[in-house]
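Researcher: I'm comparing several assemblies side by side, and this is the next one on my list. It has 898 residues spread over two chains. Same procedure as the others: predict the full complex and return the structure.
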Amino acid sequence: MSEQLDKIYNPGEVEDRLYSGWVEKGYFTPEIDPEKEPFTIVIPPPNVTGQLHMGHAFDETLQDILIRYKRMSGYSTLWVPGTDHAGIATQIKVEAELREKEGLTRYDLGRDEFLKRVWDWKEKYGSRIINQLKKIGSSCDWSRERFTMDEGCSKAVREVFVNLYDKGLIYRGPRIINWCPHCITALSNEEVEHTEQAGHFWHIKYQIKGTDDYVVIATTRPETLFGDTAVAVNPEDERYSAIVGKTLCLPLTDREIPIIADEYVDKEFGTGCVKITPAHDPNDFEVGKRHDLEIIKVMNDDATMNAYAGKYEGMDRYECRKAMIRDLEEMGLLVKVEDHSHNVGQCYRCGTTIEPIVSDQWFVKMKPLAEAAIKAVDEKHTEFIPERFSKIYMNWMENVYDWCISRQLWWGHRIPAFYCDECGEMTVSKEDITTCPKCGGKVRQEEDVLDTWFSSALWPFSTLGWPEKTKDLEYFYPTNVLVTGYDIIFFWVSRMIFSACEHTGQAPFKHVFIHGLVRDGRGEKMSKSKGNGVDPLQIIEMYGADALRFTLVTGVAPGNDMRFPVTYEPPVEPGKNPDVKVNKIVGAPGVEASRNFANKIWNASRFVLMNLTVNERKLPDVSEMQLEDKWILHEYNQLVQAVTENLDRFELGIAVGKLYDFIWDKFCDWYIELIKPRLYDEDCPSNKAAQYTLSYVLSGALELLHPFMPFITEEIWQKLPHEGESIVIAAWPKYNEGLEFAKEATDMELIMSALKAVRNQRSEMNIPPSKKAKVFIKTEKADVFTQSTLFFEKLASASEAVVVGDDFVAPENAVSCVVEGAQIFMPLDDLVDKEKELERLTKEKERLLSEIKRVEGKLNNQGFVAKAPAQVVEEERKKEAKYREMLAKVEESLKAFN
RNA sequence: GAGGGUAUAGCUCAGUUGGUCAGAGCGCUUGCUUGACAUGCAAGAGGUCGAUGGUUCAAGUCCAUUUAUCCUCACCA
C-alpha cells in the first residue's frame, strides 16, 4: 500500500482537481429512480451578479452537508443550483457602471438597449458566483442550473400571475406605497428598513377662514402641507368641537380645506389637530377615503416638488422643507420647533429615505393566500428548525397586508397586462398579445416589472419544471429541506410557502432549516460599507475549503449567529472597523484551528498508510482483536450512531463535535499511540489485526466526516483500501451490533485512567522524562492489564518495570494515586516531595469525602429513592461504592506514607 | 407598542429528552526535537452557568419575575 503523503496537507493542490473529477463523473446528477427515495434541496439563489460572501459560504456548507449525507445514505439526491436576477440590485449596478463609464442614464439608452446591457452584464458576471459556489465544494447538480429569468421560470411567473389575477387575488389600484426616489420605484413593506433618526416637529398655524383664530398642527414632514386636503380632530375632543366643519386657509397656498372629525386622531398626542395628506401618508389616505377627500400628490417621482408646491416647485423635498419653514417663520405662522426622534424608512438597496406616496400599483391580495400558508405550518406539513422561527413566520402571516408587486424598473419579469388604447380594456394574458381581444385595437404592455421576490417565491417548483408536469416535478417535489438565514423568512420563505400551497396544492418543503448570520469578530453585521466583511475565497485560499466549512459548522447551534474573528495587518484598533483599502486579513484563528484538524487527519492517515501492508478493507477476526481494537471499534460504532442521529436532527454542530473528539482524541491520541508497538513489530501475532482495525476505523471515520470536509476525506479515502470509486457515493456507515464491546470499553477506561494517573504523578512531581521508575499497580483486575501488552509497552519507555497484581505490600517512599479499580505506586525515593505528596493525598481524600457526602445525601433522600428511575438510583449506588473503595485506598496510602 | 434571541472559563462558543454537564477551541502555566503531525505531544490552572423566586426526589436545562444586551415587526401626524 504504502503511498507517501506530504508532511503537511496542501488543500489548494487537491480541491480543484477533486471537484472537477466529481462533476465529470456525474456524482451530483441524480437518477430518477422509483426504487430510491428522493431527497431535494433548492438553493437560495444568490444574486446573479453578486459575489460570494461569508453568509453564502455558511448557507452552502449546511446544504452541502445535508445533501452529501443523504447521497451517501442511498437517496436520489438533487440539489438544484441557480441564480436570481435580483431586479433592483442588478439594475442599480448596471446603471452605476453606465454612469461611470459612459456618463449615461438608462433613459438615454432606452428600455431595449438598457436591457441588452443588463443581459451582457449577466453573461459576464453570472458565472462568477457559480464558480465561487464550486470552490467551497457544493455538490449541486449543475446540469439543472436555473436562473429566475430563464424561459421556464418566466413561464411559471406568467402562469402564476394570470392564475392569481383570474381568481381576483391580483389587483391594480391607487394605494399608498413606499417610494424610493433614487431607484424610482415602488417597494414592498419588506424592502423598507427603518432607522431611528433625529427629526423635528414643526408646529404650524392654519388660520380659520374669516377669523383671526387658527389651529396649530404639528408635522414632521412640513413639505407635504401642499397636499393637505383637510385637518382632522377627534370627534370627542371638546377643545375643537366648535370648529368642526369650518374652513381653514392652507398656508403658502390659496387653497381652503375643511376641518373634519375622525376617530383616527389621538386627542392626547401633539396638538390634537392633524393635517390630512391623503397622497402622502397611509393613515391619511384611509381618512381621506372615509371623508371623500381630494388626493393631491405634491412630489415628482424623484422627490422634487411639483406644481402644487407653488413657488417651491422643482426643489428637492428637503430643500423645499427648509425654504418653506423659513417663509412660515417670517410670516409668523411657525409656532415652535420641537426635537423629535422618529423611525424613518429607507430603501434596503440604496439607503435613500423612502417617501410614502399614493400610486397606481399592482398588489397581491394576501389574506386568502395566507390561510393555507398558516395551515401548512400549523399542521406541520412544513416545520421550522429551530421551532421558534415558526412563531416569527406565523406572526407575519397572521398580520400580512397586501403585497405590492409592481416595480418601476426595467430589469425583471414584465407584468403580462396589456392595455388597449382604443377601448381602454386591460387584458392579462399568459401569451403576449398585440391586439385587444375586445375591440381589436392595438395594445401596449404594462411598463412595470414584478418584484424580484415574485419569481423567487416560485423557485421550489418553477425550477423543477412547473407548470409542466415534468418527471422532475413529479419525483423531486415537494422538496425536503430549505436552508436559509432568518433574515429572509418574510421576503422569501413565507412567500414560497403560500405560493406553493396555492399553485401546487402542497407545501414546498418539509423542513425549513434556519441559520443565523455570520458576524465579524465584534459581533457586528458584515457589510461592504463598514469594510468588516471577510471574503470566503480568501479564507479558502489561506486555509482550504474544508477548514472553512468545518469552522462554519463547529460549535454553532441552529439558528444562532456566529462570529468570525480575523486578524489584520496592520492591526485594527479595538472598537474600530477595518479599512478595506488599508487593512489586510492575515489570519483567522477559528479557521486555523480547523486547518490544524485537517492537518491532524492528514498526518494520522499518513501514518496509517506508512504502516499498512494489508490491502483490504475488512474487520479483523474477533479472536484476533486486542483490547484496544475492540475499544476503538466500540467507540467508532457509537460515533456512527451519534453522527447519524444528530444529522437527522439537524444538529450539525454536535455531529461535527463528536467527529472531532473521536478522530483527534480517541483515534489519534490513544488508539494510534497504543498500537504502535504492534505495528512496528511484524512478528507480533496481532499485527494484522491492528492494521485492519486501523484502516477500517479510519475509512469509516472519513466517510462520516465527508459531508463536512469533502476534499481531504476523498483524497485520503482513495489511498486507503476501499471499494467503489469515490467517497462521494460510498455507503454511509451503519451501526453494527457486532461492534458492541461494552466490557472492553470499560476495561480500556481503566487502563487509560491508570496511564493518565501515572503521567499526572510524574508531571506533578516534576520527574524528568529521563528518570525511570518502577510502577506498581494494585488491582483486582490484573488480567485487564496483563491481557494486552500495550500498557507495558506504553510505559516501558518511561518506566523501569511494571508490576501488576492484587496482592503486594505497598513499596516505601512511593507516590501513589487511586483510580477507579486500581491503585498505583511509584517508588521514587529521593525524588518524592513528601510534603507535597501528603498535601495531594489529603486533598484527594477531601474530594472523595465530599463526593460521598453528596451521593449519600441523595441516597438517604426517600423521595429520590422512591421516585427516581431505578437505573439512576442504581448508578448512584455504584458511585457510592466506587468512591468508598477509592477513599479506602487513599487512606491506606496516607497511612503508609506516615 | 408587539414579538423574539442571547447572558456558561480571560476570549469565542457548545451543552440534545431535567439525572457523570460543569465542556471545547483559542489564550495562559509547566515539561517535551517520543521513528504521522511543533498546524504537534503530555500535564495543569481557570466558572456561584446574569439575578431572585418557584416546580421537582433532582434545574445551565422547565416556569415566573427581574436586569443587561441584541434583533425583528409596528408606529402618533
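Model: For your comparison table: DSSP finds 27 helices and 31 strands in chain A.
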